[in-house]
Amino acid sequence: MFAEEYELQEARSFARKSLEKTMTTGSRGPDDVTFTSFRKVIEHELDFPWLTRMEHLEYRMWIEEKDMNALWMGKASFHRLSCSYNDKLMQLAIQNYGFRQLVYKRELEELKRWSRDNNLSDMGFGREKTTYCYFATAAAIGVSLPYDSHVRLILAKSAILITVADDFFDMEGSLNELKSLADAVKRWDGKGLSGHSKTIFGALDGLVSELAEKHLQQQGRDITNDLKDIWYETFASWLTEATWSKSGRTPSMEEYLETGMISIAAHTLVLTASCFLNPSLPNYKFRPAQYDTVTKLLMLVPRLLNDIQSYQKEIADGKQNSVILYLRENPEADIEDSVAYVRELIATKEKELLEHALMDGFSDLPRPCKQLHLFCMKAFQMFFHSSNRYDSNTEMIDDVQKAFYIPLKLQTPKPLIKLMLNQLPLPLHHHSRSKNDYQSVANCFNIYGKRSLAAPRVRWPVSRNFGYKNNIVMGVPPKIRFSFF
Ligand SMILES: [Mg+2]
């Protein structure tokens, strides 16, 4: 949904209210198997906005819920779309999911090895997020397999390094150590570093060399200096935040956001990986002064999402955050007002980002680069939309297992006739359905007959459960036919 699409917004809230109502009134009792399956799908729709959904897990849900692969035409009827290739398409989807899991498992093992070899998996402080970083990359990014394996690995390696270095600046290093490390990144010379600083710089230097060499081979252009510059920009922002925190200085909101948009490092990930897409990022869009608007929006939205989920911890740690700063700059506001203000800002800016990423004419970036910006925002939304899943050691386990390890759980398909009979409205003044009720509806569709599955109009019995005063006339599109697989 883009900004100023008020009708769409209204339609969305109408649909949402209707689904919520269905959740409270839709079930016909504990034996209502059909509704139980539908409940899962409706809950998913209500609980997870599109921006928080990971493509890979979405595919899984729709394959596993394939019996719900039906159009719910009204409160009392189903139509399942059918085509002669349905079974084959389903088989293909199942095999594709299994193939993806194999590739993802192999890449995750490679990443774990890389983290271990670079001593990043056992720093003794902060977060070890190799699996989470790779999960977000693999599950969010709809790039083709296995050709874009290197793009996934670049994103995940950069994200692992960012997590470790950010924690070092936030919680471990002394101000002198942090200044030395940022200075080493500026000079791109690790001489004189020791301990964790040496480990972080060594891993960064190795990554930048690897990527620059790959890019030179792939596209014939040396991007070493561009990579060094964007990493220095990121390290400098972490140093600024650490200096504020250690000196007790409170920046203005404007100052904070200017730095915070860089320190969240979403652009560090996406611009680096965009150099390896085809067509790739134009060289000049890699330079801070010339970041595209969609890049700037990507830098802002994840920062604000992260702030909403971390302000309590940051108040305790004496750190700054947009939620805390709004409160400070607006003494009449309380913390709820402050969170609401930041949420509103996120909602506005994410609509702008969608427009820039999906519409022509807003951005000069090639389409794959714009899409990567969008996927990255989705990954941040997935981690921070309703809680801080990135910092939780338990909230992501189920999704990670489903994405990489647990085979698809396929149900035995239920014949549609059973679904329909389960869903029939109760006749007036009766608590149970009679055989005649089933028969009369079955006759309408000629279910027990030979053919003619598409009756043009069907008059359904009035159901007091659903509160209709008049009979409901359902139109049946003539080309849709029922299938019994
Ligand atoms: Mg930080």
UniProtKB/TrEMBL annotation:
Please, which domain of life does this record's source organism belong to? Eukaryota
Question: What is the name listed in the Swiss-Prot or TrEMBL entry for this protein?
Answer: Terpene synthase metal-binding domain-containing protein
An example of a GO molecular function for this protein is: terpene synthase activity
- The keyword 4Fe-4S is assigned to this record: no
Q: Which stretches are transmembrane?
A: none
Terpene synthase metal-binding domain ranges (all copies): 117-352
GO BP annotation list: diterpenoid metabolic process; terpenoid biosynthetic process
Coiled-coil region list: none
Q: Which InterPro entries match?
A: Isoprenoid_synthase_dom_sf, Terpene_synth_N_sf, Terpene_synthase-like, Terpene_synthase_metal-bd, Terpenoid_cyclase/PrenylTrfase
What does the record give as cofactor? Mg(2+)
To which species is this protein native? Citrus sinensis
Tell me which Pfam families the record gives. Answer: Terpene_synth_C
Signal peptide position in this chain? none
Listed A to Z, the keywords are:
Lyase, Magnesium, Metal-binding
